[in-house]
Specification:
7-stranded mixed β-sheet, Ribosomal Protein L25, Chain P, alpha/beta, binds magnesium ion, binds adenosine-5'-triphosphate, 555 residues
């Protein structure tokens, strides 16, 4: 089946790179990087950044490195590193050579710090954190020079060596860049370059007790790796002068440029690793890969295919102006992608029993039907027609409204892939609840229209004897407020949607689902797209609803 082609949205970074290439900059090379901090699982915002950085490298025959900016060992872990690698690969990208770690460059970075000291551009400062805050000034007031600012080069070299050797406690001293305490840009007011942390690092072990700050590490790591276009989000715009200052003042091997774009913000969604971690830590969700989470692992488990995320990212403009993207656009990309890739199947979520009274009890018929109505290459699947079947309660009405296309007393409907049946009798309990339908089938209707009467409705069904009991997990949006983060008076967890998960454990699926592996997607006709969850056991399949067939929020 022909794929829907996705028109790539405007992307100002692409234009800049094209212009740089036209002018022969960087010897015609393009190198980008994706630089996550391994302090959580990646989310949909990161997917944008991954598609952007790896996508640009691909488009311009350049390279893209994966670099873990691991300067905060207390918040980082190998679990996060492994999950990030898995997510990048799952999206279908390959990073250049081995994955890098900023910590691979700690020796070099330490050397750059010493170089800054030697040039009189860095000094060891003994102000406490509180004092330093006071000296820093504010947006409206300039800062004041630290009393330690005029230490000699020799003294600074000695103190920094002793910091590095572990002679001081955490927080006792820091190394700061000597830039300008009166700068209108707060980031330039003698920012910290190194701080003391007596802590084990997941990559470098106990080798270091001083760790470089993010701003210092990030740009210089770009320079060490020969990154040409360092793309980040707008919060770092004010950090760019500092990014350039470090690169201009040490003898690093290249001069990358930073470009900022507006981060992806989705309505009804939180995209901050810290907040997502809070949901995990407080058991508001079942884990980082809970299918309601906007994490890449959550979306994978939910049944999104990587191509859907890539299509969504490609169709989202890369711009400098901030905006909020409708989460409905993501869901719509998922539907478009699954429509062509998900085989069809039947599953009855809320069953009523139907007895086909003119079908003999000891007879069954195997029906072979296409797995996908428009794609023969997906092959066929088998259904078993028996005297007793189940249909969905929603497909029957005691009093059919006008133009009702499903089953009702004395009305006919086709059981998908099988015969036309007519409802002859309804068995109810004392409360009027429907317990069973007695129907007859028309033997001349398999694969053909009935003669002498018209049937509009086609409903899904499964055999009572040949089905698989399944647990179906229906997901709705995790937040019921369009902007969960938008109200400062309230914690974002207050607008968690209490109905974001509904578990149905009375559902029955057609036997073909027994061949599906974990992650296999299906379209259950009229219900939506579903996939097999990893919680499935040999006794019971667990099925996630990936997305409904239509956007029910956009009424
Ligand atoms: P978070 O706030 O969730 O922790 P972060 O920006 O601190 O996000 P990093 O691990 O530092 O997370 O990010 C790696 C890369 O992903 C960075 O280049 C960052 O700019 C980018 N990124 C993070 N969130 C988004 C987003 N919502 N939209 C686009 N890019 C993003
Ligand atoms: Mg961060």
């Amino acid at each position: 089946m022909a794929e829907k082609t996705v028109v790539k949205a405007s992307n100002f970074v692409r234009n800049i790179i094209q212009e740089d290439l036209n002018q022969g900059k960087n010897n015609g090379k393009v190198a980008t990087r994706f630089p996550p901090e391994p302090n959580g699982y990646l989310h949909i915002g990161h997917a944008t950044s991954i598609c952007l950085n790896f996508g640009l490298a691909e488009e311009f025959s350049g390279v893209c490195t994966l670099r873990f900016d691991d300067t905060n060992p207390e918040k980082e872990s190998d679990e996060y590193i492994q999950s990030i690698k898995q997510d990048v690969k799952w999206l279908g990208f390959e990073w250049h050579e081995e994955a890098r770690f900023a910590s691979n460059y700690f020796d070099t970075l330490h050397g750059y710090a010493v170089e800054l000291i030697e040039k009189g551009l860095a000094y060891v400062c003994d102000l406490s954190a509180d004092e330093a805050r006071e000296y820093r000034g504010s947006l409206t007031e300039p800062g004041k020079d630290s009393p330690y600012r005029e230490r000699t080069v020799a003294e600074n070299l000695d103190l920094f060596a002793r910091m590095t050797a572990g002679e001081y406690a955490d927080g006792e001293k820091v190394l700061r860049a000597k830039i300008n305490m009166a700068s209108p840009n707060m980031n330039m007011r003698d920012p910290i370059i190194y701080r003391i942390r007596h802590i084990h690092h997941h990559q470098t072990g106990d080798k270091w007790c001083v760790y470089p700050m993010y701003d210092f590490t990030h740009g210089l790591s770009d320079a060490i790796e020969g990154v040409t276009h360092s793309v980040c989000t707008l919060e770092f715009e004010d950090h760019r002068p500092l990014y350039d200052w470090f690169i201009d003042n040490v003898s690093c091997p290249s001069k990358p440029h930073q470009y900022e774009f507006a981060r992806l913000e989705l309505n009804y969604t939180v995209t901050s690793k810290r907040k997502l971690k809070q949901l995990v830590d407080t058991n508001a969700v079942s884990g980082w890969d809970d299918p309601r989470m906007p994490t890449i692992s959550g979306m994978r488990r939910r049944g999104y295919r990587p191509q859907a995320l890539r299509n969504f990212c490609d169709a989202t403009p890369v711009a400098r102006s901030k905006g909020i993207t409708e989460v409905g656009r993501l869901e719509s990309a998922v539907r478009d992608d699954l429509d062509s890739h998900a085989p069809r199947a039947m599953c009855v979520l809320d069953p009523i029993k139907v007895t086909i009274t003119n079908w003999p009890a000891d007879t069954q018929q195997t029906l072979t039907v296409p797995a996908h109505p428009k794609d023969e290459s997906m092959g066929t699947r088998e259904l078993v027609w028996t005297r007793e079947v189940l249909i969905d309660r929603a497909d029957f009405a005691m009093q059919a409204p006008r133009k009702w296309k499903r089953l009702a007393p004395q009305q006919s409907a086709r059981l998908r892939g099988g015969y036309v049946v007519t409802c002859q009798e309804v068995i109810t309990n004392a409360d009027g609840e429907v317990l069973e339908l007695l129907c007859t089938y028309d033997e001349n209707t398999l694969g053909k229209k009935p003669e002498g009467y018209k049937v509009n409705g086609v409903i899904h069904w499964v055999s009572v004897e040949h089905n698989l009991p399944v647990e179906v997990r229906l997901y709705d949006r995790l937040f019921n407020d369009e902007n969960p983060d938008g109200n400062k008076e309230r914690d974002f967890t207050e607008c968690l949607n209490p109905e974001s998960l509904t578990v149905i454990d009375t559902a029955y699926a057609e036997p073909s689902l027994g061949d599906g592996e974990v992650g296999q997607q299906y379209q259950f006709e009229r219900e939506g797209y579903f996939c097999i969850d990893a919680d499935s056991s040999t006794d019971k399949l667990v099925i996630n609803r990936t997305v409904t067939l239509r956007d029910s929020w956009n009424k």
